[in-house]
Amino acid sequence: MFRLASRTASVRASGTHVRPRSVHTHAVPPRGVLPSLVRNTPGPFPAASGSASPTSARGIASLSRASINKIPPAEPWRRHPSSDPETPNVFTFFEKATSTWQYIVVDPHTSEAVIIDSVLDYDPASGVISTATADGLVSFVEHNGLKVIKILETHAHADHLTAAQYLKQQLGGDVPVCIGQRIKQVQETFAPIYGLELSSMDNAFDAYLKDNEEFNLGSLSCHVLHLPGHTPDHVGFVIGKAVFTGDSIFNPDVGTARADFPGGNAETLYASMQRLLSLPGEYRLYVGHDYPQNRDQTCFSTVADQRAENKHVKEGTDATSFIQWRKDRDAVLGAPRLLHPSLQVNIQAGRLPPADEQGRVFLRTPVKFDAGVKL
Ligand SMILES: [Fe+2]
After folding, report:
1. How far is the CA of 352 from the centre of ligand 1 (A)?
2. Among 24, 35, 88, 252, whose CB has the most other CB atoms within 10 angstroms?
């Protein structure tokens, strides 16, 4: 079951210094490692405190863009061309380390695109953050002549770091990073735990999406669905007959997302499931993760398939049964492996915490110690 450290205030959080192994050995950053971390200087992320100058951020970004032109585009796991004029082409990219589906969604009429739920590579043992996965996405965008108009987050992920801020810079610095408006609640919960200034997060994201809000993707219309339950800020995106569900519903043999994070709620998750299952049967529900090792990775199931087969919420499952099952299941789940690094970066839209006076960046890990003695 997910629990935060009970003695965060009295037992000082231990820090993970985000520092690459190669800091003293590489005059030129190896491909895919953030130049800032190799050089031990702020950026290319704008620091959460705003300490990175625009000039340095632009300079690093342009250096990286030159490098990206030489990087081969990521090869989509699957390409889903649309046969319906109101539905986008969907390119799916599976990030194996966290079993995450990343999506590049394209209006075939205009080549405008959105990127949904991107991943920043992170090795917790070494503290190295790298960008090979994100660079592949940027290269895919550039090689295919796409114009990215929004970087979308379905929610503040607890199992991987978002590449949203890195992508924004690589794509020219003016592509808005968007998330559900109830991210404020998530930030209020987690900022104090990680010693982050809540006031510095007022404009961490560029747009805060409301339930039923609409925006255009080229000639297509995108409808925002608030899908709380896994997290309070969680949203999905309906674009034609393609629905991007993040961590709400999963493929039928996986079921549904956990609902025990702070602000999560099994009751509201059930309601969100019903909202998705009430969509037309041929709509595709593209999921945020796929975990089974005994079959090929799968990124979507139709609404009709989910109604018939979802192991947690198929048609006929009553709310009481689901809610009890979900709570019982969550009570025995462990915390996600990258929980703490993910949250303190993701509630800042993919920015790292401020660097110290020596340019070092640390991520905090709250610890629990209840042995009855003081160490
Ligand atoms: Fe999640």
Report:
1. 19
2. 88
- Name the residue among 240, 202, 231 with its Cα closest to residue 50: 202
Residues 184, 232: contact at Cβ < 8 Å? no
Give all domains of the chain, ordered by start, each with its CATH number. 44-351 (3.60.15.10)
CA of 246 to the centre of ligand 1 (A): 7
List, for residues 334-373, the tens digit of each pLDDT value: 999 999 999 999 999 999 999 999 999 999 999 988 889 9
The full 3-state SS of 232-276, as one line of letters, equals CCCEEEEECCEEECCCCECCCCCCECCCCCCCCCHHHHHHHHHHH
Q: Are 205 and 233 in contact (CB under 8 A)?
A: no
Q: Tell me the CA–centroid distance for residue 85 and ligand 1, in Å.
A: 31
Ligand 1 midpoint to CA 234 (Å): 9
Ligand 1 ion: Cβ-proximal residues, 5 Å cutoff? 157, 247
